[in-house]
Amino acid sequence: MKYVVLGSSASVPTRRRHCSSARLSCDSENALVDCGPRTARQLHRFGQALERISLVWLSHLHGDHCWGLPTVIRRLERIGGEHTLRIYANHSTIDRVKTMLKALLKLKQLRSTTVKPHVAEHGIFHQTKWFTWRTFPLMHRVPTHGLIVQERQPRGRKIVYVSDTMMFDGLIEACDHADLIVCESTAQARYAKLVRSFKHMTATQAAQLARRSKARRLVLTHISHLARASAIEREAREIFPNTVVAEDFSVFTVHDRHPPAHA
Ligand SMILES: [Zn+2]
Ligand SMILES: [Zn+2]
Question: 2-250: which CATH topology?
Answer without folding.
Answer: Metallo-beta-lactamase; Chain A (3.60.15)
